Amino acid sequence: MRSLVVLFIVAVVVAGLYYAWPRFEGESPVVTAPERIALGAAGAEVEIGFADAGTGLRSVSAVLRVGAPASADTAANPSADTPDQAAGEAGGDAAKEIPLHAQTWSGSTLDGPLIAVHEEVARVALDPRAMGLPEGASTLVLRARDWSWSGLGDGNTTEVVVPVVVDTRPPRLSIETGLTYVRRGGAAVVRYRVDADAERSGVRVGEAWFPGFAESTDGRVAVFAIPVDAAPDPRIEVVAIDAVGNESTARFDARLQERTIPEITIPLFDGFLERVAVPLGQAAGLSESTPLATFQRVNSELRARNEATIADAIGAPTAPQWDGVFEQMRNSKVTSEFAEIRHYVVGGERVSRARHYGFDLASTAHAPITASNGGTVIFAGDNGIYGTLVMIDHGLGVTTLYGHLSSLAVAVGDRVEKGQTLGRSGATGLAGGDHLHFAVLVGRTYVDPVEWWDAKWLEEHVTERLR
């Protein structure tokens, strides 16, 4: 009988230990958050993660302590269940603490949580102006507590202190360029100065962005353009943005000169569709049941892909590499001009549309194609409707493009001089015959090549302003 009692007592003790032992787990909750938060005038949304793999979360909180950074000694009691309680127990001025997030889960110290919650994600909005935050340092104090019996039933606690720096002052910005005339589809240059803490700056024309090039610690120069399809009277401004997103803008006296946009009609013939459009569509996975339908997809979808490839090849502005006026293809005849809108027709009916962003220049078949000016090759290869294509970076965001080549004589990374052979003309891509498609881009915006071929325009609108 005695042995049965002993066995019963042992069984009760073992069962109790089996139940209670996990409740004494000593693993603290995990709090994940940025190591440091920098806030500009626009503020930020911060994601905070709380997790406890053991007994589960009992309470979590996020409090912004305004002013000097907090430390483990000055922070409110980490075992407090709410921000108000934390502020009160800290003995400090509660008005200097801003509760951002608080969550407590029901349960009891003996039985634990009613429903175990092991993860919580909080997204808190930090708006310096709305919250009245001063410039300089503040602190985000994050706390989590679990249902463990450790600490005489208080549970395991974790506190994470995140430094917060508030800087709502935008960079200083001043324009050094005077009256500027710029044509729709044309380019111009502006000089300006910015604070050293400006992370990026440039010219914004509507939605188009033209990064500035750093000539000195605070001196910048930007070549910009008016996109041919920009809205009437687009907003033209210099912009400087610091690391936390504070933005300064400055308008300058830029006078927009409008231009007439030509429209032409191009008939499509069966031979061209079969010989040119169908193979392009097949190679791009855009084949349709008819050659015309294939052409329509090539002229829209493949064209968009190819333009994205061109944009991706263009990097940040570098120092100018060109020397003097840009050269037109030698002994060439202009067969198509910049900015014209092309309407493709079959039997008198319009079936597709595109804008031509360069010049088509024709000479003899397989004519030598040379660099319009000095620069670095940034693309050399096939690009869909452009066929075999070469792109040259001339610095300050100016790029020239040479399409429909039949052969290549350069590779990406090559430094080329004005007049150096790039390849030979051809009819690759969406071309009806042997010619060169020549284009000029400023940033990722196509501009009229005629300006860059004009020595007087280049001197007055670009070179003079770069001195």
What would you say this structure looks like, in words?
This protein has about 475 residues and is of the alpha+beta class. It has 3 domains: about 25-165, Sandwich (Immunoglobulin-like), CATH 2.60.40.1930; about 175-255, Immunoglobulins (Immunoglobulin-like, Sandwich); about 265-465, Glucose Permease (Domain IIA) (Distorted Sandwich). It has 7 helices and 33 strands. Helix 4 (about 270-285) crosses helix 5. It is elongated. The N and C termini lie far apart (about 110 Å).
List keywords for this structure.
alpha+beta; ten-stranded antiparallel β-sheet; Immunoglobulin-like; five-stranded mixed β-sheet; 18% helix; 467 residues; 33 strands; Glucose Permease (Domain IIA); 7 helices
Short note summarizing the structure:
The chain is of the alpha+beta class. It has three domains: 26-166, Immunoglobulin-like (Sandwich), CATH 2.60.40.1930; 173-257, Immunoglobulin-like, CATH 2.60.40.10; 263-466, Glucose Permease (Domain IIA). The chain has helices spanning 2-20, 83-90, 128-131, 270-284, 291-313, 449-453, 455-466, and strands at residues 30-32, 37-39, 44-51, 57-65, 97-104, 107-108, 112-113, 119-126, 136-146, 157-166, 173-175, 180-183, 187-194, 198-205, 208-211, 213-214, 219-225, 236-242, 247-251, 254-257, 263-267, 333-336, 341-346, 349-355, 359-362, 368-370, 375-382, 388-393, 398-408, 415-416, 421-425, 436-442, 445-447.
